[in-house]
Amino acid sequence: MAEIRITTPRGVALSGTLDAAEVSAGTSADPAEGRTATAPARAVLFAHGFLADRSSRGRTDGLAKAYRAAGYATLAFDFGGHGDSEDDVVEVSHEVEDLEAASTHLAAAGYTHQVVHAHSMGALVALRAGSPHVRAMVLTGAVSGPIEHPWEEVLSPAKMAELTSTGRTTVLDDGPSGREELEISEQTLADFTEVDQAELLGTVACPVLLLHGGALVDGEEHPLLTQARIGLPLLPEGSRLEVLSGGEHALLDRTEEVAARALAWLEEVTP
């Protein structure tokens, strides 16, 4: 395991964790160099969801372990303004730059065959990003079309008033890092609704696996699943939508199933 720092073109330092793929006993590995002597030059790059961090309440940790066992190195990082990365306003355009910078870092380390595994808003970021090194994307609970987010469940009336009057406000960060709050803007809210699905999905250059929970009582996941069904025909050949029956948006209790489905699909669509 190696803790790394990645500086984006706009000058924000991102904090991440790079882990080499699992190797057989007696084979040396140096994660700081980004590769091992025996592992193929493949890596999974994680993109966490809205107001989360690289661990995503443990979801990323479990997924990364499964990917490493299958021969992928893994890079999980905090978007700017999250976790241990430097301060930044949480906006999709910023996170697109962050993800592209992380992909470039992986490529410089020898990993030019990359898979992006992203969740929720991180999936929207992944769909907007344009890294030439990404061969496939696995997206859970993806924002793949315009969504009316229930902001009243995130922001108090006072915070909404501050956002309206100043254009920015903060929300508490209850994650494991030392960060106490995250900054959002009016653009943050617009990022969820101002999505031209045909334009967004029509420019994707690699196959995409969309994994969604199927719990009928999950008000958050249902509109996301609906958008995925509408948008699937717009994605490249090899793309697929799979529904995890009974699963909720976070899929925290379905990590093993998500990993198994992702790895089986990747065997089909990537060399």
Spans where pLDDT lies below 50 across 5 or more residues: 24-29
Helix content: 25-40%
CATH superfamily of the domain at 40-146 and 196-269: Alpha/Beta hydrolase fold, catalytic domain
* DSSP strand tally: 13
Order of helices and strands: EEEEEHEEHEHEHEEHHEHEH
CATH topology of the domain at 40-146 and 196-269: Rossmann fold
Largest sheet: 8 strands, mixed
Distance between the termini: 26 Å
Output the radius of gyration: 18 Å
Keywords: Hydrolase
Protein name: Alpha/beta fold hydrolase
GO molecular function, one term: hydrolase activity
InterPro entries: AB_hydrolase_fold, Hydrolase_4
How does this model look, in words?
There is one protein chain. The chain has 271 residues and is of the alpha/beta class. The protein has a domain at 40-146 and 196-269: 3-Layer(aba) Sandwich (Rossmann fold), CATH 3.40.50.1820. Helix content is 32%, strand content 24%. The protein has helices at 59-69, 92-108, 121-128, 157-166, 186-193, 197-202, 221-231, 255-269; strands spanning 2-7, 13-19, 29-30, 35-36, 42-47, 73-77, 89-90, 113-119, 134-140, 168-172, 181-185, 208-213, 240-244. Helix 1 (59-69) crosses helix 8 (255-269) and helix 2 crosses helix 3 (121-128).
